[in-house]
Design a protein that fits this description.
The complex is a heterodimer of chains A (171) and B (102). Helices cover 72% and strands 0% of the residues of chain A. Chain A has six helices and no strands. The longest helix of chain B has 31 residues. Classes of the chains: A mainly alpha (171), B mainly alpha (102).
Chain lengths: 171, 102
Amino acid sequence: MAQILFYAFAFFTLACAVGVVVNKNAVNAAMCLLLALVGVAGLFVQLDAYLLAFLLLLVYAGAVVALFLFIVMLLDTKDTAARGFRKVSTFASVFALGLLATGVSTFAMRGRLTTPNPNLAAAVGTDLKHYAYQLFTTYLLPVQVIGFLLLIAMLGVIVLSKRWEGLDDIK
Amino acid sequence: MTTATLNDYVLLSAVLFAIGFFGVLLRRNTLVIFMSLELMLVASTLALVAFSRFNGTMDGNVFVFFILTVAAAEVAVGLAIIVALFRKRHTVQVDELNTLKN
């Protein structure tokens, strides 16, 4: 059952990710991104990371994708028809795709990542208490730094979106 | 509850990362490039969560916690930059944003 769920979510996520890349319309791409994130959240649930799945839905699928949609609609970019890629970029992409296919297929055939406990033990720290304990003991300094980073980001966004006199018409 | 192996998860996250990477390479719309970047970030967090689950620790999960926070800040700043760029140049297509080239 869990195996079927894994494959279902994996296929769903990959299909939606491809949708993000190939969709011409940016709004559709954002919607595909939303669905791909929901798929990843499902995989997180399968990995017993319930809090992270919830946060992913809340922060990414909720806030970030909404922000993307907001900006896409605000900017109202024209749907430029897909022009042909440059020769060097096409060549590089095909080459990279070949390398990638080789790597992935080799990994799928031969790769064996060993884990210390093959018979999977119960997940550590799936509940909120463990996260809180870790965040307020081992990772106390990173939490402070992250808070500071969020403050700086907020100030940066305010500065960036302010209209500065005389700078608007530089081409 | 999980029966899929670590291999499966790492493979999935590699393929997801690759899809995002090709999105960054091939698309011209800055917004879609940014979405593909987010996809790559999520793929790496998936690998982190899988590794931490199969190794019986929760350090990877805490790292993903921080990554989510940084990603949210990054998206806010990045979109603000894109809006500022659009105000000046009236386009978000990367092949028209080539002032530094000449």
